[in-house]
């Protein structure tokens, strides 16, 4: 779909994946022939080495170049890539606007950014009380054998606990959608639901969930409830596919490092400047 609709069905000569991990999606794209060469970037060597070995096993190891190190230090040459992917990885990256700006500069004129299965929900999984209450109420109706055995009530980690386990876990995930809308005029967001299911899954016995008919049926029901609650406007979507086309205007309005120009203060400043310019003051 990405290639036929956004790249006119043409093979991508060179692509980059930021936060590639095991690069399973990227390897699949190479295997399909949709991409000729992938530059894989990740902070950990474990996933990257796995991806390289998988590519070699499949006979196209020469089509993968691996780079290990912080994404903020990734060597992204300008006007190089027809496609840059963030496969469930953008929510790990800070500073968000600067990461996206660097990716934009690295795109060719026809290039796109594809954020696949991206988490855009509350920062550090700090769910709003109203959202959490729905999941907690439903949790009480689940048979005990399908819940985990540690808590009688559905519990979530605190933002502090999330940060202690992984400092890069969703520090600014809720800002992904508004930031990208501000930075990329040609943007499409395809909701993938997930709010209700993501919250409820914190408290389930996952062994029973996947190994019993009752668990399979419960999973199907939860996903159906998730869709119904989102479609009714009761819960938002926490996950999405996001497609952004290269924005050439960045050269004229480059974001200053450390400044978020989507804030109220910057919007007010821009509006004031515009008024003063028209008044020739």
Automatic annotation (TrEMBL):
One Pfam entry name: Methyltransf_31
Transmembrane segments: none
Keyword Methyltransferase: yes
Record-level Gene Ontology MF annotations: methyltransferase activity
Keyword match Transcription regulation: no
UniProt-listed GO biological process terms: methylation
Positions of the Methyltransferase domain: 19-117
UniProt keyword list: Methyltransferase, Transferase
Protein known as: Methyltransferase domain protein
Source organism per UniProt: Burkholderia thailandensis
Organism phylogeny: Bacteria, Pseudomonadati, Pseudomonadota, Betaproteobacteria, Burkholderiales
